[in-house]
Amino acid sequence: MSRVTGTTYQAIVGEVIVLHRKEHGLNQFELAESLGMSQSAWSRVEKGISSLTLEQLSKVSKVLGLLPNEIISKADQARKELEASGVSIAENKSDAIGWLLLGAAAIALVILASKGK
């Protein structure tokens, strides 16, 4: 029996934000505080457990010096590369039940690799 490996689109978006947060030298608590959220609530967003609202996307983009569409564009590029490598992407976590979720480190590698292109 083969395992289906997958992740969610929310997790990819979260990992794009994590990479930019770290580039700006911010920890989760600092970013969450600047967004008016608790660190634990923000952690769920970064892990893809909770989805970003448009308001949160706008605020986090501003803090990270990005436009909201830049975050989405980077997530879309990572999604294409993950799918090309055989990883299934669910639109939401309920679609991913039964999957072995791809770790954040693997998603980060795809995103980092695409930065060099």
Structure report:
This protein is about 60% helix and about 10% strand. It has one domain (about 5-110): Orthogonal Bundle (434 Repressor (Amino-terminal Domain)), CATH 1.10.260.40. Strands 2-1-3 form a 3-stranded parallel sheet. It is globular. By secondary structure, it is mainly alpha-helical. It starts with a strand and ends with a helix.
What is the strand and helix layout of this fold?
Layout: E1 5-8, H1 9-23, H2 28-34, H3 39-47, H4 54-63, H5 68-84, E2 88-90, E3 100-101, H6 104-115
Parallel strand pairs: 1-2, 1-3
Helix pairs in contact: 1-5, 1-6, 2-3, 5-6
Keywords:
single chain; 117 residues; mainly alpha; 434 Repressor (Amino-terminal Domain); 3-stranded parallel sheet; 6 helices; 60% helix
Low-confidence stretches: none
The first-level CATH class is given as Mainly Alpha
Gyration radius from CA atoms, angstroms = 14 Å
Give the SSE string: EHHHHHEEH
Major sheet: arrangement of strands: 2-1-3
Enter the CATH topology name. 434 Repressor (Amino-terminal Domain)
End-to-end distance: 36 Å
Strand content: 5-15%
Class from helix and strand fractions? mainly alpha
Counting DSSP H or I runs of 4 or more residues, the number of helices is 6
Can you summarize the main beta sheet? Answer: 3 strands, parallel
- Could you estimate the helical fraction of the residues in percent? 55-70%
Architecture per CATH nomenclature, i.e. the level-2 architecture: Orthogonal Bundle
What shape does the CA trace take? globular
For the record, what is the CATH homologous superfamily label? lambda repressor-like DNA-binding domains
Query: What is the count of distinct domains?
Result: 1
Tell me how many strands there are: 3
Mean pLDDT: 84
